[in-house]
Every structure is written in structure tokens, then in C-alpha cells.
Amino acid sequence: MHSDQTMSHYLKLVMDAIFGRKAFRSDISWVRQAGEKNDAVKAPGRVQNRLLFYGEAYYPARVRRPLTGAQRVAYSIQHPVFGASKSDNLLAPETRTGESGLPWRGFDPGTKGRHWSPPRTGRLGAWIEEQLIPGYTKMGAHARLDALDTAELLHWPEKVGGWPTVIRPISISQGTSLTDLWDDVGVLARGAKERLGYPTQKPLALLDRIIRTSSNEGDLVLDPFCGCATAPIAAEMAGRNWAGIDISAKAGQLVQDRLKIPPPLGIGALFQNRLVTHRIDVPMRTDLGPLPAYNCRQNRETLYGQQGGDCAGCHEHFKSQHLEIDHIISRSKGGTDHLSNLQLLCGNCNRVKGDRGMAYLRTKLQLAS
Questions:
Q1: CB atoms < 10 A from the CB of 164, how many?
Q2: Rg (alpha carbons) of the chain, rounded to whole number
Q3: By the 8 A CB rule, do 168 and 174 touch?
Q4: Which terminus of the chain is more solvent-facing, meaning fewer CB atoms within 10 Å of its CB: N or C?
Q5: How far is the C-alpha of 233 from the C-alpha of 245, rounded, in Å?
Q6: Is residue 283 classed exposed, middle or buried when 0-12, 13-18 and 19+ CB atoms within 10 A define those classes?
Q7: Nearest-angstrom CA–CA distance, 133 and 151
Q8: Are 50 and 4 spatial neighbours (Cβ–Cβ below 8 Å)?
């Protein structure tokens, strides 16, 4: 659920009521990198939007943030083979009585209250096993240290007595883990090639991150307010099935346009062999089964009991024969004959409402009073 700071706190309560508090996973701050001009005395400039994340599945390891310039500075060691690298500790907390706790080449980890722990898991351990030292992860602690030294993956400080460390090349880094602060995906600038002119268009990179961290390939991604179809495009490019809905005619036209042009502006190249249908009719529900005629006696009696004989519009009391069955959402706008979409109105209220919504009727009744 995407919103700005003015509504996120209210929407959090609504989302808790719908999905349950236990389904809440994170309140992500998307730093849009475009502050509003405002008087600094009144409030700080607004640069964040909120992403309320609810659900069960989360796969943060699939998306890594690229290293920033400040993070790259840490890779200050110039290795003759592996290039820019940094050094990682070879020790782990606590002493051990086994081999990992014994001295190696004159260095006793027990004097530091630690034990030897050359990398065996994680990205570095996997890279060493796959690319440099087959069988490395099955070796003992001292054997791994010897193997690392032979492969020139140990950094020996020039300072006498300095402890060795393990080399971690920048080339195997896939970036850093995601947090709840996303400040590396900016808004679309006015001159951005990705921009189509749709007022609430989101960056493709933002939707791509959301989809990849919360779904598997082949899953169905639904965007019920798809706008200019950025979410469907991100889903298609990530190997997901998708469905997009929007009531705006402008959105419908933009989606059709994007089906004809290649990514990242569109998805034309991905849809060459597909039949795409643009529907402008109101879809009807098909999951309710056979329904009785909406104005049947059973519906009338049930509604009369539920409403206590009062008109749902003006709230005046009437006999049953003086009330008319009305569709809350009219048939022309997708309303069904199901009892949950029916109500009793007096003749006057029913004529005033017509095929419009209840908000219109209430406004007319207020003005009349």
C-alpha cells in the first residue's frame, strides 16, 4: 500500500483491520529525492513516501542495493589478481577447545578470547569453493587457513605482529542487504525517458523491487489501480503473471500504447505472440451462482426485516408495499442481484437516486432539507 506521510498512519489501522496486525511486515520509507518547497519554520521538507508491506512471503536476498561510493572506499587493498578488495576478520567470538581454538603459525586466538573462523559459508565461502579451492568448505579450520594462504587470499599486515585477515574482492560483492529505507530509487524526472505523462506514474525500478522481493516466478501479481501499467510491465519482465485494472480511460489508452513499444517504456517485445483484449464494459461477477429475481417476495421480506421498515435513504417508516427494491450499485455499473447489493427505498428516494450511488442521494436529501 503506497501513500504519502499525511495518510500512512490512518491507512495502517485500516490495513491492520483488513489483513490482521500479525500480517504487517514493514513500514518502508521511499525517499523520493525531491523535496517540497516550504517554510522551514513550519515543517521540514517532505521527501518520503510510505510503503506499508503486509503478507507472508519476503525474499530480500533476491535484490541487493549497489555499493555506494562511501562503501567502495572500504575496498582499499589492491590485490594483484583480484583487484580492489577489503579484508575481513578470521576470528569469531568465544574460545574453543578443538582445532579452531589452537594456535596457527604462532597466532593464538585464545589470547583474544576468540577462535579461528575462516569463511566457509556465505557468498565469500561459496566463491572460494567454486572458483579457487575445490573441497574447501569441508576442510578443518587450520587446513582452510593454509589453503587461503596458498591461494593468496590472506592479507598480512606490514606491521610486525599484525594478525592476518582474509581478502574479499569487490568483484564478488552483489551489493548490500535491503533495509526499510529505500533512498536509491528516485522519482521520475520531468525529462526522463521512462515518463509518459501519467500524473501518479512510479519508477519501474520501484515496482521491480517490490515484486521481486515479495513473489516467485510464475506467481500472479494484481494491481487493481494499475494506471499506466508500470506494475504489469515490471511483473512481465520479472517472469510473473499479472492482471491490471483501472477505471481511467487515459490509463487504458496508455496501456495499449505501451503494448506496442519495447521495454522499459513498454512491453511490446514481450507480447508479440499474445492476444491482448482491452475491455471497456463493466465485468460482472460469476461466483454467486443462480440468483432469484431481485424483486422477489423473499428478498423484500428479508430487507424489510433488516431495515425495520425504514427507507434506506430518508429513514422514514413505510409499510412494505410502499417501499421499492433498489440496487445499491446499479446494474449498469456492475452491481449484482445479490441480496448484499439490494436495499429498500421509498418511491421518492428511488427516483432521486436513479442509477447513481448513495452518496448522491444523501447529498440531494441534505440539500432538500
A1: 18
A2: 32
A3: no
A4: C
A5: 13
A6: exposed
A7: 8
A8: yes
Q: What is the phi/psi pair of residue 182, to 5°?
A: -105, 95
CA dihedral angle for residue 105, residue 110, residue 114, residue 117, rounded to 10 degrees = 30
**Residue linked to cell 568448505:** 137
236 sits in which H/E element: helix 230-237
Give the span between the Cα atoms of 335 and 282, in whole angstroms. Answer: 9
| CA 237 – CA 207 distance, rounded (Å) | 11
Using the structure block, give the residue that is written with the C-alpha cell 516550504.
38
CA distances from 178 to 64, 116, 119, 182, 231 (A): 6, 29, 23, 8, 20
Helix 204-212 to helix 230-237 angle, to the nearest 10 degrees? 50
Check if the beta carbon of residue 119 is closer than 8 Å to that of residue 129: no
Q: Is 113 exposed, middle or buried (0-12, 13-18, 19+ CB in 10 A)?
A: exposed
Pairing of β 24-31 and β 48-54: antiparallel
